[in-house]
Protein backbone atom coordinates (compact mmCIF):
# COMPACT_ATOMS: atom_id res chain seq x y z
CA UNK A 1 0.00 0.00 0.00
CA UNK A 2 1.23 3.53 -0.78
CA UNK A 3 0.06 6.42 1.31
CA UNK A 4 0.72 10.14 1.04
CA UNK A 5 0.78 11.70 4.51
CA UNK A 6 0.39 15.33 5.51
CA UNK A 7 -0.51 17.55 8.41
CA UNK A 8 -4.14 16.67 7.94
CA UNK A 9 -3.45 12.97 8.42
CA UNK A 10 -3.67 10.01 6.08
CA UNK A 11 -6.33 9.95 3.40
CA UNK A 12 -7.73 6.70 2.11
CA UNK A 13 -6.02 3.33 2.10
CA UNK A 14 -4.98 0.66 -0.35
CA UNK A 15 -3.67 -2.85 -0.65
CA UNK A 16 -1.90 -4.38 -3.75
CA UNK A 17 -2.23 -8.06 -4.51
CA UNK A 18 -0.38 -9.56 -7.49
CA UNK A 19 -0.50 -12.98 -9.03
CA UNK A 20 0.07 -14.76 -12.16
CA UNK A 21 -1.16 -17.25 -13.52
CA UNK A 22 10.34 -25.49 -28.26
CA UNK A 23 12.97 -26.87 -28.76
CA UNK A 24 13.28 -29.58 -31.36
CA UNK A 25 15.39 -32.07 -29.43
CA UNK A 26 14.15 -35.63 -28.98
CA UNK A 27 14.86 -36.66 -25.37
CA UNK A 28 11.76 -38.87 -25.14
CA UNK A 29 12.29 -41.23 -28.04
CA UNK A 30 9.91 -41.86 -30.91
CA UNK A 31 10.28 -43.33 -34.34
CA UNK A 32 10.24 -41.82 -37.79
CA UNK A 33 10.35 -43.18 -41.32
CA UNK A 34 10.92 -41.70 -44.74
CA UNK A 35 11.63 -44.93 -46.60
CA UNK A 36 10.61 -45.34 -50.22
CA UNK A 37 8.47 -48.44 -50.65
CA UNK A 38 8.67 -50.97 -53.45
CA UNK A 39 5.91 -49.20 -55.34
CA UNK A 40 7.96 -46.01 -55.36
CA UNK A 41 5.59 -44.19 -52.98
CA UNK A 42 6.82 -42.60 -49.76
CA UNK A 43 5.79 -43.98 -46.40
CA UNK A 44 4.51 -41.44 -43.83
CA UNK A 45 7.11 -39.51 -41.88
CA UNK A 46 7.13 -36.79 -39.23
CA UNK A 47 8.27 -33.25 -39.88
CA UNK A 48 10.71 -32.71 -36.99
CA UNK A 49 10.90 -28.95 -37.52
CA UNK A 50 8.23 -28.23 -34.89
CA UNK A 51 8.46 -27.23 -31.20
CA UNK A 52 8.31 -30.36 -29.05
CA UNK A 53 9.08 -28.86 -25.66
CA UNK A 54 6.08 -26.61 -25.00
CA UNK A 55 5.54 -24.43 -21.93
CA UNK A 56 2.28 -22.70 -21.10
CA UNK A 57 0.68 -21.12 -18.05
CA UNK A 58 -2.25 -22.52 -16.09
CA UNK A 59 -5.44 -21.63 -17.94
CA UNK A 60 -3.65 -20.61 -21.15
CA UNK A 61 -4.48 -22.88 -24.12
CA UNK A 62 -1.66 -25.19 -25.21
CA UNK A 63 -0.99 -26.31 -28.79
CA UNK A 64 1.10 -29.36 -29.70
CA UNK A 65 1.85 -29.29 -33.42
CA UNK A 66 2.39 -32.62 -35.16
CA UNK A 67 2.98 -32.61 -38.90
CA UNK A 68 2.88 -35.85 -40.88
CA UNK A 69 3.93 -35.97 -44.52
CA UNK A 70 2.65 -38.55 -47.02
CA UNK A 71 0.03 -39.88 -44.62
CA UNK A 72 -1.88 -41.69 -47.36
CA UNK A 73 -4.59 -43.96 -45.93
CA UNK A 74 -3.06 -44.04 -42.45
CA UNK A 75 -4.52 -42.34 -39.37
CA UNK A 76 -3.04 -40.00 -36.76
CA UNK A 77 -3.80 -40.35 -33.05
CA UNK A 78 -2.78 -38.43 -29.94
CA UNK A 79 -1.92 -40.45 -26.81
CA UNK A 80 -1.31 -39.27 -23.24
CA UNK A 81 1.79 -41.18 -22.25
CA UNK A 82 1.30 -41.44 -18.49
CA UNK A 83 -1.84 -43.59 -18.76
CA UNK A 84 -1.74 -44.50 -22.48
CA UNK A 85 -5.13 -42.84 -22.86
CA UNK A 86 -6.20 -42.25 -26.47
CA UNK A 87 -7.20 -38.59 -26.66
CA UNK A 88 -7.98 -38.28 -30.35
CA UNK A 89 -8.08 -40.53 -33.41
CA UNK A 90 -8.28 -38.78 -36.74
CA UNK A 91 -10.40 -35.70 -36.14
CA UNK A 92 -12.49 -37.38 -33.43
CA UNK A 93 -12.03 -36.90 -29.68
CA UNK A 94 -11.85 -40.16 -27.72
CA UNK A 95 -12.01 -38.79 -24.21
CA UNK A 96 -14.82 -37.39 -22.09
CA UNK A 97 -12.54 -34.47 -21.23
CA UNK A 98 -13.71 -31.94 -23.81
CA UNK A 99 -10.70 -29.72 -23.20
CA UNK A 100 -8.86 -31.90 -25.72
CA UNK A 101 -9.41 -31.42 -29.44
CA UNK A 102 -7.44 -32.04 -32.61
CA UNK A 103 -7.20 -29.26 -35.17
CA UNK A 104 -6.55 -30.30 -38.74
CA UNK A 105 -7.15 -27.87 -41.62
CA UNK A 106 -8.50 -29.44 -44.82
CA UNK A 107 -5.86 -31.24 -46.92
CA UNK A 108 -3.19 -30.34 -44.37
CA UNK A 109 -0.53 -32.52 -42.81
CA UNK A 110 -0.90 -30.65 -39.51
CA UNK A 111 -2.54 -32.53 -36.64
CA UNK A 112 -2.49 -30.08 -33.74
CA UNK A 113 -3.59 -31.17 -30.27
CA UNK A 114 -5.38 -28.31 -28.51
CA UNK A 115 -5.64 -28.43 -24.72
CA UNK A 116 -7.96 -25.77 -23.34
CA UNK A 117 -7.61 -24.44 -19.78
CA UNK A 118 -4.61 -26.67 -18.97
CA UNK A 119 -3.78 -27.40 -15.33
CA UNK A 120 -0.47 -28.40 -13.76
CA UNK A 121 -1.64 -32.02 -13.73
CA UNK A 122 -1.70 -31.94 -17.55
CA UNK A 123 2.09 -31.65 -17.66
CA UNK A 124 3.84 -34.62 -19.19
CA UNK A 125 4.54 -36.48 -22.42
CA UNK A 126 2.05 -36.69 -25.26
CA UNK A 127 2.61 -38.85 -28.34
CA UNK A 128 1.54 -38.23 -31.90
CA UNK A 129 1.13 -41.69 -33.47
CA UNK A 130 0.58 -43.05 -36.98
CA UNK A 131 -0.87 -46.54 -37.39
CA UNK A 132 1.85 -47.87 -39.67
CA UNK A 133 3.41 -51.29 -39.14
CA UNK A 134 5.45 -50.95 -37.05
CA UNK A 135 3.74 -48.00 -35.38
CA UNK A 136 5.33 -44.55 -35.73
CA UNK A 137 5.32 -42.16 -32.80
CA UNK A 138 6.70 -38.74 -31.94
CA UNK A 139 6.83 -37.49 -28.34
CA UNK A 140 6.03 -33.97 -27.13
CA UNK A 141 6.66 -32.58 -23.65
CA UNK A 142 4.07 -30.20 -22.18
CA UNK A 143 5.04 -28.16 -19.13
CA UNK A 144 2.15 -26.31 -17.46
CA UNK A 145 3.34 -23.77 -14.92
CA UNK A 146 1.55 -21.55 -12.45
CA UNK A 147 3.02 -18.11 -12.91
CA UNK A 148 3.54 -16.33 -9.61
CA UNK A 149 3.76 -12.60 -9.10
CA UNK A 150 4.60 -10.39 -6.17
CA UNK A 151 5.24 -6.71 -5.60
CA UNK A 152 8.61 -6.21 -4.00
CA UNK A 153 9.17 -4.18 -0.86
CA UNK A 154 7.12 -3.39 2.22
CA UNK A 155 3.41 -4.09 2.31
CA UNK A 156 2.66 -0.42 2.99
CA UNK A 157 4.50 2.55 1.51
CA UNK A 158 4.24 6.09 2.89
CA UNK A 159 5.43 9.01 0.76
CA UNK A 160 5.32 12.78 1.03
CA UNK A 161 3.16 14.72 -1.35
CA UNK A 162 5.15 15.54 -4.47
CA UNK A 163 7.63 12.70 -3.94
CA UNK A 164 8.17 9.95 -6.48
CA UNK A 165 7.52 6.27 -5.82
CA UNK A 166 8.13 3.10 -7.80
CA UNK A 167 6.37 -0.25 -7.43
CA UNK A 168 8.01 -3.29 -9.01
CA UNK A 169 6.02 -6.42 -9.80
CA UNK A 170 8.01 -9.59 -10.54
CA UNK A 171 6.34 -12.49 -12.35
CA UNK A 172 8.37 -15.68 -12.08
CA UNK A 173 8.05 -18.85 -14.16
CA UNK A 174 6.41 -16.84 -16.88
CA UNK A 175 6.31 -18.03 -20.50
CA UNK A 176 6.84 -15.32 -23.11
CA UNK A 177 3.26 -15.87 -24.21
CA UNK A 178 2.07 -14.77 -20.78
CA UNK A 179 0.22 -11.79 -22.19
CA UNK A 180 -0.44 -8.38 -20.72
CA UNK A 181 0.23 -7.22 -17.15
CA UNK A 182 -2.38 -4.87 -15.70
CA UNK A 183 -2.04 -2.53 -12.72
CA UNK A 184 -5.05 -1.60 -10.58
CA UNK A 185 -5.75 0.95 -7.88
CA UNK A 186 -8.56 -0.63 -5.94
CA UNK A 187 -10.89 -2.20 -8.51
CA UNK A 188 -10.09 0.37 -11.21
CA UNK A 189 -7.48 -0.36 -13.90
CA UNK A 190 -4.70 2.19 -14.10
CA UNK A 191 -4.69 4.11 -17.39
CA UNK A 192 -1.51 6.12 -17.76
CA UNK A 193 -2.99 8.35 -20.45
CA UNK A 194 -5.55 9.57 -17.90
CA UNK A 195 -2.91 10.49 -15.29
CA UNK A 196 0.37 11.92 -16.57
CA UNK A 197 1.96 11.38 -13.16
CA UNK A 198 1.87 7.61 -13.80
CA UNK A 199 4.10 5.49 -16.02
CA UNK A 200 4.28 1.70 -16.55
CA UNK A 201 7.30 -0.13 -18.00
CA UNK A 202 7.48 -3.88 -18.61
CA UNK A 203 10.56 -5.92 -19.54
CA UNK A 204 12.06 -9.42 -19.45
CA UNK A 205 15.15 -10.38 -17.48
CA UNK A 206 17.82 -12.84 -18.60
CA UNK A 207 16.47 -15.47 -16.19
CA UNK A 208 12.98 -15.39 -17.74
CA UNK A 209 11.32 -13.16 -15.16
CA UNK A 210 8.79 -10.58 -16.31
CA UNK A 211 9.21 -7.24 -14.53
CA UNK A 212 6.49 -4.59 -14.56
CA UNK A 213 7.20 -1.23 -12.90
CA UNK A 214 4.65 1.40 -11.94
CA UNK A 215 6.10 4.89 -11.44
CA UNK A 216 4.31 7.73 -9.65
CA UNK A 217 6.30 10.85 -10.50
CA UNK A 218 4.74 13.22 -7.95
CA UNK A 219 2.46 11.55 -5.43
CA UNK A 220 -0.80 13.27 -4.53
CA UNK A 221 -3.45 12.30 -1.96
CA UNK A 222 -5.49 11.02 -4.91
CA UNK A 223 -2.79 8.38 -5.47
CA UNK A 224 -3.45 6.83 -2.07
CA UNK A 225 -4.91 3.41 -2.59
CA UNK A 226 -4.65 -0.34 -2.84
CA UNK A 227 -2.44 -1.26 -5.81
CA UNK A 228 -2.29 -4.64 -7.50
CA UNK A 229 -0.34 -6.15 -10.36
CA UNK A 230 -2.27 -8.80 -12.29
CA UNK A 231 -0.96 -10.75 -15.29
CA UNK A 232 -3.68 -11.91 -17.67
CA UNK A 233 -3.11 -15.56 -16.68
CA UNK A 234 -2.93 -14.93 -12.93
CA UNK A 235 -4.55 -17.22 -10.41
CA UNK A 236 -6.58 -15.06 -7.97
CA UNK A 237 -5.05 -16.83 -4.97
CA UNK A 238 -1.57 -15.73 -5.99
CA UNK A 239 -2.39 -12.03 -6.25
CA UNK A 240 -0.50 -9.93 -3.72
CA UNK A 241 -1.38 -6.38 -2.75
CA UNK A 242 0.50 -3.27 -1.71
CA UNK A 243 -0.93 -0.21 0.01
CA UNK A 244 0.27 3.28 -0.89
CA UNK A 245 -0.52 6.28 1.30
CA UNK A 246 0.20 9.83 0.20
CA UNK A 247 0.45 12.76 2.62
CA UNK A 248 -1.79 15.78 2.48
CA UNK A 249 -0.22 19.20 2.56
UniProtKB/TrEMBL annotation:
Region (Disordered) spans which residues?
1-33
Origin, by domain of life?
Eukaryota
**What Pfam families has UniProt attached to this entry?**
Ig_3, V-set
Domain named Ig-like is located at 44-131, 134-240
InterPro entries from the UniProt entry: Ig-like_dom, Ig-like_dom_sf, Ig-like_fold, Ig_sub, Ig_sub2, Ig_V-set, Zig-8
Gly residues composition bias: which ranges? 1-12
What is one cellular component GO term in this UniProt entry?
Answer: neuron projection membrane
Gene3D superfamilies hit by this protein: Immunoglobulins
Q: A GO biological process this protein is involved in?
A: synapse organization
Which PANTHER family does the record match to this protein? DEFECTIVE PROBOSCIS EXTENSION RESPONSE 2, ISOFORM F-RELATED, DEFECTIVE PROBOSCIS EXTENSION RESPONSE DPR -RELATED
* Name of this protein: Ig-like domain-containing protein
Amino acid sequence: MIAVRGAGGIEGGAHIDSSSHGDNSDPWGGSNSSTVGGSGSLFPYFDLNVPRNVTTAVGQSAFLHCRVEHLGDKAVSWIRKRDLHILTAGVLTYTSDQRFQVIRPDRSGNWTLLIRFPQKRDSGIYECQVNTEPKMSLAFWLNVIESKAHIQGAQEVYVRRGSSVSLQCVISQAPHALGTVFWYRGAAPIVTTADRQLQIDTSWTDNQQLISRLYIRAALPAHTGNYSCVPTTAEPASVEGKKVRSERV
